[in-house]
Amino acid sequence: MKKCLFGTLMLMMIMLLSACTPTIYGVPEDRWQTMSEQERVAAMEAYKARQEVLRQQRAERARLRAMEKQAQLEREAEEARRRQRQIAAIYRGEGLYGDLLRVNLEGGRLAFRGGYHPYQPVSFKIAANETKDIEIVSRSGRRAHMTVRYDGGNLVLDETPRSHRSTALRLPFENSWERGAIYRNRSANGPHGMRGVNVSIRIVGRPPHGNHGRRHPAAAVPPPNRDPRRSVPIVGKGPKHASKPVVVVVERHPGTMAGRNRPAVRPHGQAVEHPSQQKSKLGAPPARIKVVLRSGRVKVNRHSYPLQPQTIEMRAGQARTVVVRSRHGNLKVRLSYVSGELLLNDTPGHHRKGTRIAHAAGWQSGKRYHIKASEGRLLEDLDMLVVAE
User: Fold this and answer.
1) What is the tens place of the pLDDT at every residue in 243-298?
2) Residues 61, 220: Cα–Cα separation, whole Å
3) Can you name the residues that pair with 386 across neighbouring β-strands?
4) Is 261 helix (H, G, I), strand (E, B) or coil?
5) Which of 302, 305, 296 shows the shortest CA–CA distance to 327?
6) Residues of the chain with pLDDT under 70
7) What is the DSSP string of 94-120?
8) Minimal CA–CA distance to 290: which of 267, 268, 266, 309?
C-alpha cells in the first residue's frame, strides 16, 4: 500500500515538473539547444500541424454547440408559438369549457416597496397553459407586476418566475367556478406576500351539454360507478388471476341499461370501451396529448395520501418519468405514449406491464378515466383526463 502511494506521488511530481518545464514548439528548452537546424524545422512544422488539428477540433466542437443551441432555441420558439396559438384559440372560444377564467383580486394587502399596502382591485382573464404578468397598483400609486399562471388544473397566483420552489397561492380547479367561487382571506409568501386577499374565479363562456367539451375538477370526483344500470369497462387479469391486483378503468360517460352491450373483460393492461362509444375509424393518433391527473391517492412508505393535481404534456414516441406529488411524499411513475397508446407504470424497473389506455374518439374533446388501482397498487382511485392537442 505504501509503495503504491509513493509511486503515485512520484508520478504526480514528474507530471508537475514536466508541465512547468519551459518548451519551444513543444520541445523542452534544454533539448532544443542541442538540436540541429533541420531537427528544429521539423519540430516547428510538427508543432504547427498539431496546433492546426487542435484548432479545427475546437472549431468543430464550437460549431456543434452553436447548432445544438440554435436547434434548442428553434424548438423553444416553435413550442412558444404553438402555445400562443392554443391560447389565442381559447380566447376565441375554441377550447374546453373551463379553459378560460375571469379572476378578481380585492381586499387585503400586498407587498410593495416600503411595506404592505392596500391595493386597487384587479380583474383579468387567463387561459389554460398561459403565464402572464398583471399590473397591481397600491392605493398610494405604487406599481408592480404579479406573475399568474393557469395550467388547466390549478390557478397559481403570485408565482416566483424561474424558481424551483413555489410559495405562490395555488387553487385547484373546482366545479363551483362555473357559478363563480370566492376564496376569502387568502395569504401566500410569494414576491408580493399576499395577506388577506379575496380571490373570485368564474369560468368564461357558456357551459356545454353533458360532460363533453368541459374541464373536470380535481376535487369533485364521483365515486366508482356502483349503479347496476350502468356498464363499466374493466381492465383486469380475468377470473383465473383474481388474487392479483385488478385495474378498473371507468370512463366518465353516460352508461347503458343493464343487459345491453355489456363490456368485455380482457387481459390486464388493455382498456375496453363501450361499443357504442367506439368508432370504426378513429384516424391517426394525435401527435401531442395532455394527461391531467385530477385526483386520487398515492402510496408513500405504505401510507396512502391524496395526490396533488398536475398536468403532463406528452409527444408521440415519448417516454418520461413523472413525479406524482403529495403533501407527505412523492412517487415516481413512468409514462409513455407510443403508437397511440398511453402507458402508465407505477413501478418502473420491475418489468410490469402497467396500465394501458388506447387512443379513443373522445380524446379530441377530453376523455376522462377512473383507475381504481394501478398494477403496483401505488396509485388508487386515480381520476385522469386525456386531451388531444
Assistant:
1) 444 444 544 443 333 333 333 333 333 444 444 444 445 778 888 898 999 889 98
2) 54
3) 291, 367
4) coil
5) 305
6) 1-21, 164, 209-281, 348-352
7) -S-BTSEEEEEEESSBEEETTEEE-B-
8) 309
What residues make up the domain containing 199?
Answer: 100-203
Copy the grid coordinates of residue 339. Answer: 403508437
Gyration radius from the chain CA atoms: 30
Length of the chain: 389
The answer to the question of residue 39 being in a domain is: no
How many whole angstroms separate alpha carbon 325 and alpha carbon 334? 14
Residues in contact with 132: Cβ distance below 8 Å, sequence separation at least 6, in sequence order: 124, 126, 147, 148, 149
Q: Is the same domain home to 197 and 242? A: no
SS3 state of residue 75: helix
382 located within any domain: yes
- How is residue 90 written as a grid cell? 381559447
The DSSP secondary structure of 7-19, one letter per residue, reads: HHHHHHHHHHHHH
Nine cell digits for residue 19: 508541465
